[in-house]
Amino acid sequence: MARLAAAIAMLIAFAQPALAEDGYDLWLRYRPLPADRASALAARAGAVETDEASDPTIAAAVAELQRALPSMTGGGPEQQGGVILIGTTRSRRIAALGLEPAGEDGFIIRDVTANGRRLLVIAGNRPVGALYGAFHFLRLVQQGPLPAKLDIAEKPRVKLRLLNHWDNLDRTVERGYSGQSIWDWWKLPTATDPRYTDYARANASLGINGAVLNNVNAKPDSLTPQWIAKAAKVADVLRPYGIRVYLSARWSAPVELKQTATADPLDPAVAAWWRAKADEIYRAIPDFGGFLVKANSEGQPGPQDYKRSHAEGANMLAAAVRPHGGIVMWRAFVYSEVDPDDRAKQAYSEFKPLDGKFADNVIVQVKNGAIDFQPREPFHPLFGAMPKTPLMLEVQITKEYLGFATHLAYLATMWAEVLEADTFARGKGSTVAKVIDGSLEGHALTGMAGVANIGSDRNWSGSIFDQANWYAFGRLAWNPDLTPVEIAREWAQQTFTPDPGFVDPTVAMMLESRQAVVDYMTPMGLAHLMATGHHYGPGPWVGDLARPEWNPTYYHRADKGGIGFDRTRSGSDAVAQYARPVARRFADRRTVGDDFLLWFHHVGWDERMASGRTLWEEMVARYDRGVAAVEGMNRRWAMLGPLIDKERADQIASFLVIQKEEAIWWRDASLAYFGSVSGRKLPAGVRPPAHDLQYYEAIRHPYAPGHH
Ligand code: BDP
Predict the structure, then answer these.
(1) What do we know about how this protein assembles, alone or with others (predicted)?
(2) 19 pLDDT band (50/70/90 cuts)?
(3) Domain ends where: 437, 461, 495?
């Protein structure tokens, strides 16, 4: 009997977490380290100590270390070596060390000797700083051998680091390609899911500190007591991880809920309703972050329905949440079918005159480009143009326009391109990064939002490589100056293996991947050429939709003579919305560069490009280059896949095949169409499209995911 009990105890002691590599563990895999690294780690960090275990955030940090370290070192409690001391500067032991972490969310990781004992200290001013420090430490451990002495101090550059979930109350996800919403609204608030905690851990590991739970195309129901209780339950689970909950608010909610006669922001009854609603939400969620609003955009109601401005609308809501320390994120993604002006100009035209008119707890949320999350857009002209208003950057992590969840497109390169772009708002060096981190104009309220790619799929993001985009978003929101290559490297090291034989070529593939998508979908500054509705696959021929600016033909303007949207003075003059040096560069055919050529210029098919080719030949070459890049990725993965686990390797391999087929589809359909419009023949030796144009035009995909 005793022997049996002992055997069971042994089994329990040696039970390892299941090692299935289905992607669920993301970059927090904590797999056993090779023996030398394991013993070095145990000697350094065999046990965890804290004086603040009663704090739920510190407890979460300790739990993470205690889950990770034994798993990586392979050691049970008897193998303890060095000690990690974790906590805040409020703890006496940490205060005695004289460490000074920076800011509210910053942390320090340092090897110290105290009373003859070697300690690895992870400290923040607040518990969440310590939590971020713990995750940072685990990131380093998973990346390879630790340096002999750690002395790290970090703090985030941006205050609001938020995911925007476009999740509907029926659990569908607008533009979501990873299954259903992770929020199982139907079962909330009584039942939660362990996934919520793992979601929180993953976000906290990156420093993401907020989540807007519901779609910007919001329903009024999400503001009813029933749904507030559900959101409150989610907030309870996320809170220890430093993540606040926000809600998208539908402008006309009080009217639709039959509680006010109007949604006019200047009507006192409307303001009173929102104040009471905010009070009610804060009673349920004391640290509620605030509201995100899509107003007067794509059919959504808004203050303009009552002849009031965006600022009047935003300020009314801001007053409602102000007593509780809440904020309003007001989206600048607006364009109107009754405005005949270039869609790319409309957000600037509406918002620029409102600079200085927003309350100080309002931040205006601006997409990276002026149209709509296309594979490549020049930076949005509002960046740098509203110095008196805090602006937050909105990027789309879910790949609505870059191949859904199957195409490999690493988006850090796209986001870095925007963050590094120089607005010249205050002379050279006025990058978008400095606009959104507040340093250019001295704003304290700063932010970056990413439209989440997270769903109920076992691997969270629909594909393994799409996890890298969630990861990269969080890392860039923490520090917009991190480079795509360093982010890709640390992600791949943690997600797969630190082996450079795998990591180096995988990172190289990631870095090329977004340009490949640009090349096979929308080369040379083209944009918005996708099929209608679901946005899956090519539709450059579409020109019969009700609203002019929904038609691909509106964007490419191809005819017998040439292609491209003239946004110079001879056209829509959108270039004039940029600061002078930028406007000059974009307006000049010699300086605009190939990447944005057709975004700003209408160019003759036979005009010569820098390469010496005609425009038509250059476009053909780009489409071919895009397809070739994906073929190359398939070949490379055939070598790399065997270096990792079969389950993930096989899924990646099969998705690369889908990407190849669809790259060819995009290329063939686009060339068939543009060839027919231009009347130009394919250059000698170029493979003709597999089918005629009618074939591509007839393709329908009524059941593509993510549609709304
Ligand atoms: C577009 C999406 C649409 C969103 C909209 C937005 O197609 O589903 O509602 O952006 O950002 O790209 O509001």
Answers:
(1) Homodimer.
(2) low
(3) 495
- What pTM did the predictor assign? 0.96
Strand-pair category, 117-124 with 151-154? unpaired
Copy the structure tokens of residue 386: 């509203």
Based on the fold, state whether residues 276 and 338 are members of the same structural domain: yes
Give the other-Cβ count within 10 Å of 253's Cβ.
22
Alpha-carbon distance values, 487 to 28, 379, 402, 525 (Å)? 15, 22, 20, 26
Beta-carbon-side half-sphere exposure of residue 61 (alpha carbons within 13 Å):
34
- The answer to whether residues 128 and 234 belong to one domain is no
Question: Which ligand 1 atom is nearest residue 215's CA?
Answer: 9
In a domain, 226, yes or no: yes
Which pLDDT does position 101 carry in this prediction? 93
Is the pLDDT assigned to residue 540 strictly greater than 80?
yes
Ligand 1 test: best mutation among 217, 330, 532, 545, most atoms within 8 Å of CB?
A: 217
175 plus 311 within the same structural domain: yes
Answer yes or no: do 184 and 288 share one domain. Answer: yes
The pLDDT value recorded for residue 338 is: 86
Pairwise CA distance, residues 421 & 133, whole Å: 30
Residue 210 near residue 163, CB atoms below 8 Å: yes
Q: Is the CB of 216 under 6 A from ligand 1?
A: yes
Say how far apart CA 192 and CA 170 lie, in whole Å: 16
For ligand 1, is residue 372 a contact (CB within 6 Å)? Answer: yes
Q: How many CB atoms lie within 10 A of CB 351?
A: 24
Check pLDDT > 90 for residue 550: yes
- Claim to verify: residue 118 and residue 250 sit in the same structural domain: no
142 and 178 co-located in one domain: no
Is the pLDDT at 549 greater than 80, yes or no?
A: yes
Task: Please report which confidence band the pLDDT of residue 337 belongs to, taking 50, 70 and 90 as the band edges.
Answer: confident
Q: Are residues 274 and 411 in the same domain?
A: yes
Show the domain range for 677: 519-565+602-697
**Number of separate domains in the chain:** 3
pLDDT score for 9: 38
d(CA 294, CA 241): 28
The residue assigned the tokens 């209780």 is 229
Whether 676 is in a domain gets the answer yes
333 lines ligand 1 (CB under 6 A): yes
